[in-house]
Amino acid sequence: MSTRSILSAFLMLLVAGLVSPVYAQDAAGATGTALVQWSIITAGFALAIAALGGALGQGRAVASATEAIARNPGAAGEIRGALILGLVLIESLVIYVLLISLILFFLKPFGG
Amino acid sequence: MTASPGDRQLRRIERDTLIVGGVLAAGALVAWPAQPGRAAGIAGGLLLIALSYQGIKAGVDAAWAPPAGVAGAVGPAPVPSRPRLGFVKFFTRHAILAVSAYVMMARFEFDPMAMLAGVTAPAVAASIESVRIMRARSSGSHSRLS
């Protein structure tokens, strides 16, 4: 599958996600319901973007650590420690977004 | 087997994380004695990041434990006795985290903002460690930390 196809599919999903709340609104068009729907959509996208960023960051960290250990096996202990710390700090950012998404999904601070 | 400087640094950060989390939880209990959900939320956030840390550490140990007798190795990490379990922890950590966070938030009704504060504890601990390293370097006693 080419990059253009993936990009097109992503754009179509994005448009579908943006349009669906419009059809889901009732006749009265309650503002609160729309806000809840938007907050849930936002939470989903936020989690997806956080997972993407976290995965890219962790991938780069692991690749660099692997290369460094291959070049200098004697420093494996120190590199391992730095790698674990870096991965945990990246992961904590993803957990922030996970928690915020769960708040929006289940606690519904905007009502609903 | 002697621990490498990296391992010792991780031990210090683990200890500092627990201290920061404990101080935050105690502060929440003192500031809002009628709302124990806030202190519980901080402990819950700390538990989440601990689960994540254990998963990552188990995976890294399973994948990168250097073989014994590497020339010039500075205190190689102990080879995990059950590397398969380490990989399972590593690859299932996000599912475990999501379920745990859901249970804490939706079932136990921990304070969500307090949970966010609890998750911040390792970042604060890492900042403390970096300040400690900078102070040691400026005073010329780097060996004290290693």
Characterization of the model:
The complex is a heterodimer of chains A (112) and B (146). Chain A is an all-alpha fold and 112 residues long. In chain A, 85% of the residues lie in helices and 0% in strands. Chain A has 3 helices and no strands. In chain A, helix 1 runs antiparallel to helix 2 and helix 2 runs antiparallel to helix 3. Chain A starts with a helix and ends in a 5-residue tail after the last helix. The model of chain A has no long low-confidence stretch (mean pLDDT 83). With 146 residues, chain B is mostly helical. Helices cover 73% and strands 0% of the residues of chain B. In chain B, helix 1 packs across helix 5. The mean pLDDT of chain B is 85. Classes of the chains: A mainly alpha (112), B mainly alpha (146). At the A-B interface, helix 2 and helix 3 of A face helix 1, helix 2, helix 3, helix 4 and helix 5 of B.
Summarize the SSE layout with pairings.
The complex is a heterodimer of chains A (112) and B (146).
Chain A: H1 3-24, H2 31-71, H3 76-107
Chain B: H1 5-31, H2 36-64, H3 83-107, H4 112-119, H5 121-138
Helix pairs in contact in B: 1-2, 1-5, 2-3, 2-4
Oligomeric grouping of the chains: heterodimer
Number of domains of chain B: 1
Give the N-to-C terminal Cα separation of chain A. Answer: 40 Å
Mean pLDDT of chain A: 83
Helix- and strand-based class of chain B? mainly alpha
* Residue share in β-strands of chain A: under 5%
> CATH architecture of chain A, please?
Up-down Bundle
The number of domains of chain A is 1
Q: Please identify the structural class of chain A as seen in this structure.
A: mainly alpha
- What's the name of the CATH homologous superfamily of chain A? F1F0 ATP synthase subunit C
Number of helices of chain B: 5
Distance between the termini of chain B: 15 Å
Largest interface: A-B, 30 and 40 residues
Q: Which of globular, elongated, flat, extended, rod-shaped describes the shape of chain B?
A: flat
E-strand count of chain B:
0
Helix content of chain B: over 70%
* CATH fold-type name of chain A: F1FO ATP Synthase
Radius of gyration of chain A: 20 Å
Stretches of chain B where pLDDT falls below 50 for ≥5 residues?
A: none
